[in-house]
Structures are given as structure tokens and as C-alpha cells.
Q: What sequence folds into this?
């Protein structure tokens, strides 16, 4: 073992250098671009940025304003059903209501149907995490160790599928649209698949592997507020049943604000509706299941088109206009300061 004193340089010996190597990289001598900021370059950047943001913002606002949209609040129009649903013992009783409306002008192009909720806070911390992603991937997991509590198991130990507060509070109103043409009533064809994100449908949600869904979910029970088990969400389409049901997937993507809308259906462009929804009288027939009175909420159904910039939300356009205005005003302020300082400099030179 070496003595500690052997590491101490003796008199006359050269001490090891702590200087970095004499290379361009370590000596910070690499070629670099050093822009020389002049008043012309600074002002041009501010004014060009302002002009760009203003032009983009105006285009986005005009695009958002061109969206055709009709929104109907059916909370009060279905008041009898709402009173029935306030009593939880009536969960298995059906209640239907109808809402009539008129389109003075047809809605051309692709038409999307949304349901909207007001004063429903999905952004609560415990609500957001109340789910089991492993369970939603079709894995056999112990949900007692998840964040689903108290919606994990029943008193007899039967696990809930799916578990958690998000799944338990799933929106379950059924909305159908009818077109009243003269004396006949035509049901508007609606598409219930293809409405969720591809990554959600094919990556984040999967059914347990089995020869059929009923056996895959054997030994589990529906959440307390559901009227039917998860494997009966869509009995007509096996590819839209269980955890991969589009309505369920869309609901599980929680909203950041208490007032929000979720895509519910798309109008199938066939027969009389090949060009969209023609002008005339229509009726929403609603199977009312989702109570909102206790949390002072409201429910809406929305028919809307979309454009290249999205829906009828003008927020992005307003943000661009505000940014462009700020950049332009900053350019004018810098110009005024520059002219003032230049006059002072000229005065002192004289």
C-alpha cells in the first residue's frame, strides 16, 4: 500500500496542470455566429412577427366563425326524467323525452353530434387518478392496489370492471335524431364508431383475451351507476364493445374545465343526408339516464361542422391577434425611444 505522502509532489518536481487541453473546443475558440443587433434588424423582426401573428389570427377567427353550430339545452325540457333520476332507486326505470327544433338553413358537409356538460368537474385530483390503466389494457391485475377506491370491489369481493370514479360516472344518455319530412319521420343515420383517437382505441384500451367477451369478464360486475355490464355496451358490434367502446374511451379522456363537450356521433352521409342535414324540422329523442341536478349542472346536445382549423373555438385566433398586437406595439415603442434618443444625441453633438 502506497504511503499518502507519495502523492505529494516533492521539491523540484512539476505539479500536474489543471488547465484544459489546448484545443479549439476546450478553449472556446470554435467559430460562432455573433449577430450584430441593429435598430433596423430589431424593428423589422418585431413588425414582421406582429404582421404574421395578426394575419394568422384573423384567418383563424374567420375560420372559426364560419362553423355552423346549433346547441340545445335539454336539462329543463326533460324535467320529469330529471326528477325521476334524482332518486337512485329508479336506476332501472326508463325515461324518454323529445326536443323539437328547426333548421332554417341546411348544415352542409360533415356534421358532428356532441353532448355537453356544464359544472361537472372532471379535473379533481382524486377523480383524475381514479382508474386502472393496467385493467383497461385487458390485464388480470389486483385493482385493490390501484387508485380506483372506493370503486374497486363490492362487499362480497366481486371486482368492478371497469373500476374507478371516472368509469362509474360515465355519461349514459342515449340520443337519437329524427328528420320530420311532411307526414313521415326519418331517423338520421349516425355513426357510433371511428370517433375516438386511434392511439386510444388501438394502444391504451384492450379487452381481455377470451373466446367471447362475456367469458372474458366472468367474475366481474358492472360499476354501481351503470345499467348494464361493460361487455354489453354495444351488442351489435363486437369491435365496439367492452373496454374498446368508443363512448367509453372518449369519456375516459377527462376534461380540464367544468364546462366541456365530447364527441358522441357523426352523421352518416347517405341517402337524404348525403350533403349533410337539410333544412327542416328535427327531433331529438333522448333516453334520460345521467342526472345533473344534484351538482347544479346542465346538459346540451350540439350539432356542428368543422373546418381546417377545427371547431368553433376562437381562442387560438384571439391568442394570435393578441400576440401580434403586442409585438407591433412593442415595435412602435422601440421606434419612438430610438428617435428620441437619436434627437438627444444630435443635440449634444452640436
A:
Amino acid at each position: 500500500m502506497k504511503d499518502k505522502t507519495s502523492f505529494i509532489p516533492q521539491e523540484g518536481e512539476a505539479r500536474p496542470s489543471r488547465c484544459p487541453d489546448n484545443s479549439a473546443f476546450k478553449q472556446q475558440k470554435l467559430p460562432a455566429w455573433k449577430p450584430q443587433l441593429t435598430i433596423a434588424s430589431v424593428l423589422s423582426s418585431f413588425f414582421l412577427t406582429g404582421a404574421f401573428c395578426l394575419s394568422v389570427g384573423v384567418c383563424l377567427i374567420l375560420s372559426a366563425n364560419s362553423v355552423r353550430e346549433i346547441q340545445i339545452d335539454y336539462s329543463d325540457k326533460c324535467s320529469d326524467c330529471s326528477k325521476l333520476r334524482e332518486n337512485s332507486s329508479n336506476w332501472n326505470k326508463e325515461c324518454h323525452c323529445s326536443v323539437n327544433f328547426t333548421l332554417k338553413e341546411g348544415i352542409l358537409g360533415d356534421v358532428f353530434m356532441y353532448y355537453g356538460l356544464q359544472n361537472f368537474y372532471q379535473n379533481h385530483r382524486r377523480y383524475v387518478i381514479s382508474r386502472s390503466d393496467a385493467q383497461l389494457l385487458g390485464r388480470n391485475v389486483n385493482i385493490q392496489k390501484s387508485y380506483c377506491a372506493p370503486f374497486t370491489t363490492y362487499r362480497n369481493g366481486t371486482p368492478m370492471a371497469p373500476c374507478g370514479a371516472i368509469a362509474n360516472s360515465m355519461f349514459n344518455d342515449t340520443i337519437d335524431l329524427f328528420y320530420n319530412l311532411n307526414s313521415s319521420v326519418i331517423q338520421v343515420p349516425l355513426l357510433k364508431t371511428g370517433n375516438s383517437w386511434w392511439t386510444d382505441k388501438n394502444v391504451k384500451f384492450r379487452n381481455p383475451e377470451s373466446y367471447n367477451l362475456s367469458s372474458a369478464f366472468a367474475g366481474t360486475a358492472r360499476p354501481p351507476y351503470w345499467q348494464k355490464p361493460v361487455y354489453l355496451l354495444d351488442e351489435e358490434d363486437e369491435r365496439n364493445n367492452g373496454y374498446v367502446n368508443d363512448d367509453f374511451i372518449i369519456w375516459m379522456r377527462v376534461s380540464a374545465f367544468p364546462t366541456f363537450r365530447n364527441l358522441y356521433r357523426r352523421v352518416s352521409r347517405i341517402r337524404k343526408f348525403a350533403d349533410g342535414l337539410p333544412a327542416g324540422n328535427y327531433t331529438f329523442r333522448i333516453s334520460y339516464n345521467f342526472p345533473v341536478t344534484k351538482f347544479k349542472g346542465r346538459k346540451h346536445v350540439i350539432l356542428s361542422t368543422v373546418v381546417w382549423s377545427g371547431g368553433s373555438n376562437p381562442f387560438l385566433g384571439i391568442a394570435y391577434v393578441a400576440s401580434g398586437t403586442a409585438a407591433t406595439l412593442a415595435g412602435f415603442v422601440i421606434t419612438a425611444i430610438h428617435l428620441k434618443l437619436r434627437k438627444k444625441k444630435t443635440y449634444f453633438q452640436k
